[in-house]
Design a protein that fits this description.
The chain is an alpha+beta fold. 31% of the residues lie in helices and 17% in strands. It is elongated, with a radius of gyration of 25 Å.
């Protein structure tokens, strides 16, 4: 906890001491951060103290010491009785990567548009869709690395499969069959870039990208397979 600091002798400096922001009451000036932001020691209604940047107090982005968030999380964990189990930790992790700007991995997930489906706002539904993790070697993997965390786009994968599923070598699903991009390309006798361009550049569905013969578009009817 930062020690109390003397108020800067600057006529433009705004003294926040005594002001109330949500559940926080400003107790004392706590000095400037390394970046130059002014920080304040605040007391929360729950009895805890927290050092907060003045800008966060004034714009309303921080209104308590996180006690409400912690209480809500504890209530949810108590409700489903799964707090601390591997699947719950995975669920919390994907939500943090996609929603929490302070999460170190956010830039690779939420920062590039990766979302968690609305259904998975609730851990119970995530567990119902994905089931128990098969082993400690398995992690939650998105079949399409440009797609969301959702039931149709996620599998439990071991590390060998995970290592193969990069953004350039991803899973593609068509007619109920899921294969790696390189496997579809090999089966169809086309370059993997053809399938990628159909999906990412032209906006075709995965099924259209792998089932439409070269030289045709998905809008032309395909002959029925006998």
């Amino acid at each position: 906890m930062a020690k109390n600091q003397p108020i800067p002798n600057n006529p433009r400096f705004q003294d926040l001491t005594g002001q109330v922001f949500g559940r926080l009451t400003v107790l004392a000036y706590a000095g400037a951060s390394p970046s130059g932001a002014q920080r304040w020691l605040c007391g929360c209604d729950c009895g805890r103290q927290k050092v907060v940047q003045g800008g966060h107090l004034k714009n309303g982005s921080i209104r308590d010491c996180s006690c409400r968030k912690n209480a809500a999380s504890a209530q949810r964990a108590t409700k489903h009785g799964q707090h601390g189990v591997p699947e719950y930790i995975v669920w919390k992790g994907i939500r943090a990567r996609c929603h929490n700007l302070r999460e170190p991995a956010y830039s690779n997930y939420g920062g590039r548009g990766i979302k968690v489906c609305d259904r998975w706002d609730h851990f119970e539904k995530f567990l119902a869709d994905m089931g128990k993790r098969p082993s400690q070697r398995h992690t939650l993997e998105r079949k399409n690395n440009h797609g969301p965390y959702s039931p149709e786009n996620c599998i439990w994968a071991d590390r060998q499969v995970q290592a193969r599923n990069t953004r350039r070598n991803r899973y593609i699903t068509a007619n109920g069959e899921t294969l790696l991009l390189c496997q579809w390309a090999e089966r169809l006798g086309v370059r993997a870039s053809v399938i990628v361009n159909r999906c990412d550049y032209y906006g075709w569905t995965e099924a259209e990208a792998v089932l439409t013969p070269l030289g045709q578009t998905p809008f032309k009817p395909l002959g029925r397979l006998e």
